[in-house]
Design goal:
The complex is a heterodimer of chains A (about 110) and B (about 120). Chain A has about 110 residues and is an all-beta fold. Chain A is about 0% helix and about 60% strand. Chain B is built from no helices and eleven strands. The chains are: A mainly beta (about 110), B mainly beta (about 120). The interface between A and B is medium-sized, with 18 and 22 residues.
Chain lengths: ~110, ~120
C-alpha cells in the first residue's frame, strides 16, 4: 500500500514567522513531489514541485526533499494570513501519472 | 487560462437514483481524473482516463463508472446512489503550466448529498 502521511493539524503560526509543513511517503520508487494549497471551499492548486534532493525556492516558499529519509517539506517564510489554508502533499511514481495524496495539513496564520 | 468545469456545484439525490457528474476541460489534455474528498481522508482516486474511451480504476471504483467519449469530457456515473457516496467530487485534468511544470488542474467540485 503506497502511502503519503501528513500531520492533519491545525498548525498555528504567528504572522511573519516561518511555517514548516512535513510529509512522509512509503514508496521508494516515488520520483516527483508536489505541494498543493486548498483554501476552504475551493479546489487544490499547485504551489511547488520538486524532484531532486535538496531545496527548491520560489518566492516565500521552499520545498525540501530528502529521498533517503523519504520526506518532503514545505517552508513558508514571512507567513501571511492569506497563507491560511490546507496544504496537500502529493507524490508520483515515475511509472505512471497518478498522484498519491496525503490527507493535508491545515495551516492557520494568526495576525 | 486552463479551465475545468463541472456540471453542478451542489446536488441532492435520493438513495437508488442514478447520478451523472460531468467534467469538461478546454486544454486538450489527455489525462483526466475523478476524485472524492472526505474530511481526514484526503483525495481518493475513483477512476482516471488517459485518452478517449480509455479508463482505469483508481483506489475506490466500487459503485462508480465513467465515460470518456470525447477528449474534453469525462463523466462520472453513480449507478445507484447510496448515502455513503455523500461527498465532494473533484475532477482534474493533467497538463503543464506556462513554465513547463506538470500539474493537475481541478474543477470547482460538486458537493453531492445522498438522502
Amino acid at each position: 500500500q503506497k502511502e503519503v502521511e501528513q500531520n492533519s493539524g491545525p498548525l498555528s503560526v504567528p504572522e511573519g514567522a516561518i511555517a514548516s509543513l512535513n510529509c512522509t511517503y512509503s514508496d521508494r520508487g516515488s520520483q516527483s513531489f508536489f505541494w498543493y494549497r486548498q483554501y476552504s471551499g475551493k479546489s487544490p492548486e499547485l504551489i511547488m514541485f520538486i524532484y531532486s534532493n535538496g531545496d527548491k525556492e520560489d518566492g516565500r516558499f521552499t520545498a525540501q526533499l530528502n529521498k533517503a529519509s523519504q520526506y518532503v517539506s514545505l517552508l513558508i517564510r514571512d507567513s501571511q494570513p492569506s497563507d491560511s489554508a490546507t496544504y496537500l502533499c502529493a507524490v508520483r511514481l515515475d511509472s505512471n501519472y497518478q498522484l498519491i495524496w496525503g490527507a493535508g495539513t491545515k495551516l492557520i496564520i494568526k495576525p | 487560462d486552463v479551465k475545468v468545469t463541472q456540471s453542478s456545484r451542489y446536488l441532492v439525490k435520493r438513495t437508488g437514483e442514478k447520478v451523472f457528474l460531468e467534467c469538461v476541460q478546454d486544454m486538450d489534455h489527455e489525462n483526466m481524473f475523478w476524485y472524492r474528498q472526505d474530511p481526514g481522508l484526503g483525495l481518493r482516486l475513483i477512476y482516471f482516463s488517459y485518452d478517449v474511451k480509455m479508463k482505469e480504476k483508481g483506489d475506490i471504483p466500487e459503485g462508480y463508472s465513467v465515460s470518456r467519449e470525447k477528449k474534453e469530457r469525462f463523466s462520472l456515473i453513480l449507478e445507484s446512489a447510496s448515502t455513503n457516496q455523500t461527498s465532494m467530487y473533484l475532477c482534474a485534468s493533467r497538463g503543464r503550466q506556462a513554465g513547463g511544470q506538470e500539474t493537475q488542474y481541478f474543477g470547482p467540485g460538486t458537493r453531492l448529498l445522498v438522502l
